[in-house]
């Protein structure tokens, strides 16, 4: 059976076709300091600086804006479905009467092109969170109108660890269309959903049939044993146990600064806060990302904080991703993208900690 293929040199032609067919196309964009205009992009640029650059997913108006030359983007496609900050509704009180004006999400049909499999794989995980009753309408509507085109990884870096969490450089989870690099310099085009099939009908002129060829995928070694790591975490979960007060957790988290970069860049972290901005007469209710790494995240109104130290918050992050989430949804809340260590100012990520707990056999 022949493969449906796309030439690697035609990725920007693909973007051009999608721009003609869809109201909105989102692609990875290399941002300069002047271009990092969104609050999330500005924060990432301040954190990482111009020397390393910031690649984020943003709407594009021309194929030349898209950037595909990276191991992984700085920011994940989570931004497209759960924005760092978004208005929920505005309110105003006049002459004793209150008025609410909803701020609905954009309803345009959208294509996200150029994500990596580890990013796309985060979407089914977050679906389990946001589509539970009561369902998050904003998440569901964005997911329903968006088609995801993923490019499998032909190379990685020392921070990639998708294989340690049960995924691979060409995992199909969460993708509607998957482009798999072949040894002959073309992409094999795999259609995975009805939305993917509809997309291929619009770009058929770019595709051709070719004899099957060997895939050229990144070699990502397993860095830790996930089952052993989970067993260790299950035995070290209780905040009140004498065992959890041993220096082990403090040692594992010693380098952590509590800056929150890992949670903000993680494709599967989803904590948020809701605040009102304005005064007693008018204002806006917004949903903003939050982070379990922050000292105020669990602080009570009384002033008591059950996680007053950095190591307790780091332990919570690991326990949630690999223990609590797994108990509830039968999957770990991690896709091995490597951002938590790749962009950490002290090179501390979940992979680093789990490798120390349960190195690969």
Can you tell me about this structure?
It is a single chain. This protein has 361 residues and is an alpha+beta fold. The chain has one domain (3-357). The protein is built from 13 helices and twelve strands. It has helices at residues 11-21, 39-52, 78-81, 117-120, 122-130, 137-145, 194-202, 226-234, 247-252, 261-265, 310-329, 339-342, 350-357; strands spanning 3-7, 24-31, 54-59, 85-94, 97-102, 110-115, 146-151, 177-181, 186-191, 208-210, 272-278, 282-289. The strands form two sheets. An eight-stranded mixed sheet has the order 3-2-6-7-8-9-1-10. A four-stranded antiparallel sheet has the order 5-4-12-11, with no helix packed on it. Strand 8 and strand 9 (186-191) form a beta hairpin. It is globular and about 65 Å long. It starts with a strand and ends with a helix.
| Portion of residues within helices | 25-40%
Describe the main β-sheet briefly: 8 strands, mixed
**Overall mean pLDDT:** 89
Strand order of the largest sheet: 3-2-6-7-8-9-1-10
Q: Report the structural category.
A: alpha+beta
Low-confidence stretches: 36-52, 239-243
Radius of gyration from the alpha-carbon trace, in angstroms:
22 Å
Count the helices. How many?
13
Question: Which band does the percent of strand residues land in?
Answer: 15-25%
Number of strands: 12
Q: Helices and strands, in N-to-C order?
A: EHEHEHEEEHHHEEEHEHHHEEHHH
Q: What best-fitting shape do the alpha-carbon axes yield?
A: globular
User: What is the count of distinct domains?
Assistant: 1
* Separation, N- and C-terminal Cα atoms: 38 Å
């Amino acid at each position: 059976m022949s493969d449906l293929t796309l030439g690697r040199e035609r990725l920007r032609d693909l973007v051009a076709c999608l721009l003609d067919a869809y109201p909105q196309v989102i692609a990875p964009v290399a941002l300069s300091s002047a271009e990092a205009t969104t609050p999330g992009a500005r924060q990432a640029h301040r954190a990482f600086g111009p020397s390393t650059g910031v690649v984020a997913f943003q709407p594009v108006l021309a194929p030349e804006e898209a950037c595909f030359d990276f191991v992984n983007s700085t920011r994940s496609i989570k931004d497209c479905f759960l924005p760092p900050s978004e208005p929920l509704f505005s309110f105003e009180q006049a002459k004793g009467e209150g008025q609410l004006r909803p701020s609905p999400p954009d309803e345009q049909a959208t294509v996200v092109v150029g994500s990596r499999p580890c990013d796309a794989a985060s979407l089914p995980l977050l679906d389990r969170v946001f589509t539970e009753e009561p369902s998050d309408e904003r998440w569901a509507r964005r997911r329903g109108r968006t088609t995801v085109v993923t490019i499998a990884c032909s190379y990685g870096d020392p921070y990639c660890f998708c294989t340690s969490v049960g995924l691979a450089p060409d995992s199909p989870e969460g993708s509607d269309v998957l482009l798999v690099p072949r040894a002959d310099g073309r992409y094999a085009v795999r259609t995975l959903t009805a939305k993917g099939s509809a997309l291929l009908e619009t770009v058929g002129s770019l595709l051709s049939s070719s004899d099957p060829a060997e895939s050229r995928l990144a070699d990502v070694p397993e860095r830790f044993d996930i089952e052993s790591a989970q067993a260790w975490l299950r035995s070290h979960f209780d905040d009140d146990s004498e065992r959890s007060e041993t220096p082990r957790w403090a040692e594992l988290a010693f380098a952590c600064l509590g800056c929150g970069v890992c949670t903000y860049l993680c494709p599967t972290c989803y904590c948020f806060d809701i605040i009102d901005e304005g005064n007693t007469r008018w204002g806006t209710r917004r949903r903003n990302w939050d982070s379990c790494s922050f000292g105020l995240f669990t602080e009570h109104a009384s002033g008591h904080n059950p996680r007053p130290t950095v190591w307790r918050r780091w332990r919570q992050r690991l326990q949630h991703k690999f223990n609590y989430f797994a108990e509830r949804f039968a999957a770990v809340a991690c896709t091995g993208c490597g951002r938590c260590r790749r962009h950490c100012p002290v090179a501390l990520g979940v992979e680093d900690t789990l490798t120390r707990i349960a190195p690969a056999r």
